[in-house]
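Researcher: Please predict.
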Amino acid sequence: MAGEKGRAVILLLFLQFPLLQAAKILTLCFVGGSHYLLMDKISRILHNNGHEVRMFLQFGDGMLPGHLLRQSPYPVSSYSLGEKYVQEFRDLFIEGQKEYLKGRYDLSAFMVFMEQLSYQCNITLHQSDILHFLKEEKYDLAFIEGFNPCSFLVAEKLGVPFIAFFPGIFMNAGRVGAHGPLSYVPLFQSQLTDRMDFFGRLKNTVMYMGSYMVDGMIDGSFQKVIDEHFPAGSRPSIADLQVKAELWIYNVDFTIDFPRPLLPNIQCIGGLLAGPAKPVSADLEDFIAESEDSGFIVVTLGSMISSLPILEFLTEMNDGFAKIRQKVIWRYERSRWPKEVEVAPNVRLVDWLSQNDLLGHPKVRLLVTHGGMNSLMEAVYHGVPVVGIPLFGDQNENLIRVKAKNMGTFIPPEEMEAEKFANTMRGVIENSRYKTTAMKLSAILRSRPFPPDRQLLGWVEHILQSGGGGHLRPYSYQQPWYQQHLLDVILFISTIVAVIVYLIVKVCRVLLSFLSPNRKQKQN
């Protein structure tokens, strides 16, 4: 009997063996900063679990200022945008930072950024030697960063099926068929929560109608690139490529985001960069020890921003830190600190910091952040309250969710003033409800059935073993827009109702004419 059971187990393993073989996976990363950190993490997860991984990396557009990239265990095919353009892009980014800090980030600024991505994409698609090499490698699957439309064009050029990973909240939900009810699913940049009054729902509806125009503008910024690199008659559209993804994975978790209905080809796997904390350096540990019971604050405005280009803004922040009793560890490129500003006595500037490890320290009291999703997920994981200073992109929307969840609050950058900043930090640190909420959200996040790396790996291998994600994609992807919104059905029903109403009115008029007194008098 035991022998039969043993043979059954061996047979089962033998049958499963083909499903467990390594796949060749190409990861694409054409945006730096936190986007790169996520794609590097994903590449390492896949590599460490036996898959043959290579990254196609655009290097040079402000990848990680002041921080050297780690040596990767997987091979990388990289190219540079050129020193001249890189400097021009950095200058443009710094000018953008100034506008962000003055509260002037709008659609036009976003479109300028998308035009830059389009220009970079043209350079990417001209890397003929690398593209030819990658095409000859015949990858089983590509894992692309879904924020940059160029990733879709490269995957299409290589002819590789792909999974799209979006680094933040559902900014492009409408493009992938994930429309949520406008009554409780706020649109990106609406600055609304899921609890809308009448005027909130009205605003959400108007923005929904306008979102089609914005999508068209984004697609249009890449049209010249498509026309140049794809032959006439087989030119793809960004919209078609986005719904072509075998699976969409969003770097979000509903501990932060508002609940919403999702299609089966859309999965939420947030918190890939969060995890158990490692000990900090001895130097920082000594500095933290000086705080005694007051604890310390972690300050970072994102991986792409290593310094602040507006002296007045920097001064107000620095003066605000000087007014609180906590120690402050501030990620700021020390060589760029202005000589005319004296660093607050309780502040330690560091060129780079391990944010996850510091947030896991028992004496941490607060995270001051730009509101990037990775920072917020690490704060949730470690149960640390937040004070945000949103700058651009999805950061304002992220921090609206943090405030709605009672995990913290935020200050618009144009309202930065030392006393207000200090009072806000003190209010979040001293009001126990913020810490209580943060710990509750941390417990929810940590109690997920599977950690994010196992979720990610499981879904990738499911797509590989299933031969694609066709079974997950809804038929709506193949329907024209008027069918998706039932406009043909509404038109048909409206026509029928109109005809019925017309006939009823006509019959009533005829009956009334027979019953009218004037008709009876004429008959007499």
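Model: The first helix runs from residue 2 to 16.
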